[in-house]
Design a protein that fits this description.
CATH topology: Rossmann fold
CATH superfamily: NAD(P)-binding Rossmann-like Domain
Number of strands: 7
Number of domains: 1
CATH architecture: 3-Layer(aba) Sandwich
Order of helices and strands: EHEHEHEHHEHHEHHHE
Pfam families: adh_short_C2
Number of helices: 10
Keywords: Oxidoreductase
Family: Belongs to the short-chain dehydrogenases/reductases (SDR) family.
Bound molecules: NADP nicotinamide-adenine-dinucleotide phosphate
Strand content: 5-15%
Protein name: Ketoreductase domain-containing protein
Helix content: 40-55%
Largest sheet: 7 strands, parallel
Radius of gyration: 17 Å
Organism: Pseudoalteromonas luteoviolacea S4060-1
Shape: globular
Length: about 250
């Protein structure tokens, strides 16, 4: 049985991934931090379509809550065989010269450390699962900001995503001999609520005309790439990235 944990699956790219993977035979563990109603709607949609899903509330920036979440998944569903490290946050747009250490550290503790901790716990589950370990996989949701830089808006976020790219490369090499694949996706400007947290809810519409494809992306377009990288169809892909940034 394929059991996928998606962090931050109550909204945006995580929610689209949950809906997509549920149609492909995964039992979906939906993690969220605080928006219970939104998470419940994702679960209801999956169940209504004949899929299987359960909710797991946890703040993934808290190591103990991550460990407790994995234990709860094992008890209620079984061992995690696939992981989508997705939950992430933005902060108000500003230039580097305005940033203080508290803000920068928050970016790292919210966007980098949780990916390591969730991966660590998922690896234990994958090894303990009766599902073939060579079919276990994870996808890290990075960002095109990692190579574009986020200038004048959020270089701290871009740097955190750069760390996720390095993490993806390094972990893929650590796990390759076992056959556990680790890949990344790098979305560009996608229509989700995250831009409101950056102080500009309509950011995607503002920048769309400057993108080669002349439009923002949808969460489903990112979810499709995540689903492919997790699947056995991507069996010879590890340590690689799919850029979903409209040509940027
Ligand atoms: P979003 O719509 O703002 O959703 C964020 C999700 O993360 C929510 O489900 C939220 O849960 C959850 N979350 C945040 N902090 C959490 C924590 N500490 N513990 C558990 N869950 C937490 O974001 P999104 O745009 O879909 O972004 C998803 C990923 O894509 C992020 O890594 C982001 O950096 C990346 N990305 C997004 C874009 C874009 O343009 N949207 C572009 C590039 C990369 P609650 O609902 O409970 O708060």
């Amino acid at each position: 049985m394929k059991i996928v944990l998606i962090t931050g699956a109550s909204r945006g790219i995580g929610a689209a991934s949950a809906r997509c993977l549920a149609t492909q035979g995964y039992v979906v563990a939906i993690n969220y931090k605080s928006n219970h109603q939104a998470a419940e709607e994702v679960k209801s949609d999956i169940l209504a379509a004949g899929g299987k899903a359960a909710l797991f509330q946890a703040d993934i920036s808290d190591e103990q809550q991550v460990v407790a979440m994995f234990n709860a998944i094992e008890t209620r569903l079984g061992h995690v065989t696939h992981l989508v490290n997705n939950a992430g946050v933005l902060q108000t747009q500003m230039r580097v010269e305005e940033m203080n250490a508290e803000r920068i550290n928050r970016m790292l503790t919210q966007n980098v450390t949780p990916y390591f901790i969730c991966a660590r716990e998922a690896i234990k589950h994958m090894r303990d699962s009766s599902y073939p370990v060579t079919s276990c996989a994870m996808v890290n949701v990075s960002s095109a900001a990692s190579y574009l830089g986020g200038a004048n808006e959020y270089v701290d976020y871009a740097a955190a995503k750069g760390a996720i790219d390095s993490f993806t490369t390094g972990l893929s090499l650590e796990l390759a001999a076992e056959g556990i694949r680790v890949n990344g996706v790098r979305p560009g400007c996608i229509y989700t609520d995250i831009h409101a947290d950056g102080g500009e809810p309509n950011r995607v519409d503002r920048v769309a005309e400057f993108l080669p494809l002349k439009r923002g992306g949808t969460p489903a377009e990112v979810a499709n790439a995540i689903a492919w990288l997790l699947s056995d169809e991507a069996s010879y892909a590890t340590g690689t990235f799919i850029d979903l940034a409209g040509g940027k």
